Automatic annotation (TrEMBL):
It comes from the Bacteria. Residues 1-223 form the FAD-binding PCMH-type domain. Coiled coil: none annotated. It comes from Streptomyces himalayensis subsp. aureolus. InterPro entries: CO_DH_flav_C (IPR005107), CO_DH_flav_C_dom_sf (IPR036683), Diverse_Substr_Oxidored (IPR051312), FAD-bd_PCMH (IPR016166), FAD-bd_PCMH-like_sf (IPR036318), FAD-bd_PCMH_sub1 (IPR016167), FAD-bd_PCMH_sub2 (IPR016169), Mopterin_DH_FAD-bd (IPR002346). Keywords: Oxidoreductase. GO terms for molecular function: FAD binding; oxidoreductase activity. This is Xanthine dehydrogenase family protein subunit M.
Length: 330
């Protein structure tokens, strides 16, 4: 039986130094993903867990029209934040649609961004073929059965879904990730933070070993942007998305002047539907245009038996959500 070392530093620099210096060390925040994978499923191996829960990275502040969210702020704390309630209702909807109250009281914002896939083959040590867990071993999911898997950004090497709800709302709003590591600080837009599987499904984001998410910056939209997060799932609560949409429109004189659309439940990364946004901008807020946007958003999916249904479901959800935020009947 291997021995696991647990450290709980009080200073950011100490935490970063501990993980950077040891390839067998990893950060521990709320533990709702990390402890499952390590202790229950046994699909990740670490010698040392560095608990970041006591670092001064908790809470929110507003500076120059941007909400800064500390990485160890919990999902429940952020959902109850006055600025989020008033200015970012779509973020609150996404937060409260995820997991359960108990989990959201433990789960942190940094951990939510970095939650691992729910692909059942990844989480089952008895399955040999998983390129994400064992690079070069193949992908059991593409030969199925598959259902809670991705259809965008996917390929024969991996169809693992990024299952976060929060990240879908955050990519739609152009959130930026604050990172600190042994070489200093940097900022990366959330739309550029994740890496699609390609030939290396084991590489999921741009973080180097030892780098920590310290905060997430969310620009506060100007008044008049109507936004909504809608999640479709098999059960009414405590379930991951089959498909979800974060949509926001600004409409002036009947024409769409600002369009934001991101999708969950379909992408290997939280999916920003750029082409659909381009199509909508400048057009009238009519259902025919919403249908055209939905068509473009789901162009060129990679499906396997068991995931084809997501194409039509996502398109219908996009139309419904855009109709709602445009003020038309959903
Ligand atoms: P941890 O488990 O502590 O860490 C997760 C990973 O992130 C680890 O690799 C850790 O090293 C790394 N990490 C954590 N913080 C940092 C940081 N600041 N910098 C660098 N690395 C860091 N999520 C949804 O969005 N929607 C759902 O419907 C949903 N349902 C769930 C249902 C269940 C039963 C469970 C167990 C989880 C569910 N989740 C859902 C996922 C949940 O939101 C995540 O597990 C949680 O947000 C992870 O946060 P954490 O603080 O517990 O992270
Ligand atoms: Fe592994 Fe990705 Fe295939 Fe799932 S989809 S079995 S995570 S390679």
């Amino acid at each position: 039986m291997s021995v696991l070392e647990y450290r709980r530093p009080e200073q950011l620099a100490e935490a970063i130094a501990l993980v950077s210096a040891d390839p067998g060390a990893a950060y521990l925040a709320g533990g709702t993903t990390q402890l499952d994978l390590l202790l229950k499923d046994g699909v990740v191996e670490y010698r040392t867990l560095v608990d970041i829960g006591r670092l001064p990275l908790r809470g929110t502040s507003v500076v120059d029209g941007v909400l800064r969210v500390g990485a160890v702020t919990t999902m429940e704390e952020l959902a109850a934040d006055a600025v989020v309630i008033e200015r970012l209702p779509m973020v609150r909807e996404a937060l409260l649609s995820g997991a359960s109250t108990q989990l959201r009281n433990m789960a942190t914002i940094g951990g939510n961004l970095l939650q691992r896939t729910r692909c059942r083959y990844f989480r089952d040590r008895a399955v040999a073929a998983c390129n994400k867990r064992a690079p070069g071993s193949g992908c059991a999911a593409v030969r199925g059965p598959a259902r809670m898997h991705a259809i965008l950004g996917a390929g024969e090497n991996c169809i693992a879904l990024h299952a976060s709800d929060l990240c879908v709302a955050l990519v739609a709003l152009d959130a930026v990730v604050g990172i600190e590591g042994p070489d200093g600080q940097r900022s990366v837009p959330l739309t550029e933070f994740y890496v699609m599987p390609g030939e290396r499904p084991d590489v999921e984001n741009v973080l180097a070993h030892g780098e920590m998410i310290t905060h997430v910056d969310v620009p506060l939209p100007a008044a008049g942007l109507r936004a909504q997060y809608v999640k479709v799932r098999d059960w009414a609560s405590y379930e991951f998305a089959l498909v979800s949409a974060a949509a926001a429109l600004r409409i002036e004189g009947g024409a769409i002047t600002e369009a934001r659309l991101a999708l969950g439940g379909v992408g290997t990364v939280p999916w920003r539907a750029w082409a659909a946004e381009d199509l909508l901008r400048g057009r009238q807020a009519y259902e025919a245009n919403f249908r055209a946007a939905a068509e473009v958003a789901l162009r060129d999916p990679y499906t396997v038996p068991g995931t084809e249904f997501k194409v039509g479901l996502a398109q219908r959800l996009i139309v419904r959500t855009l109709k709602y935020v445009s003020g038309a009947q959903a």
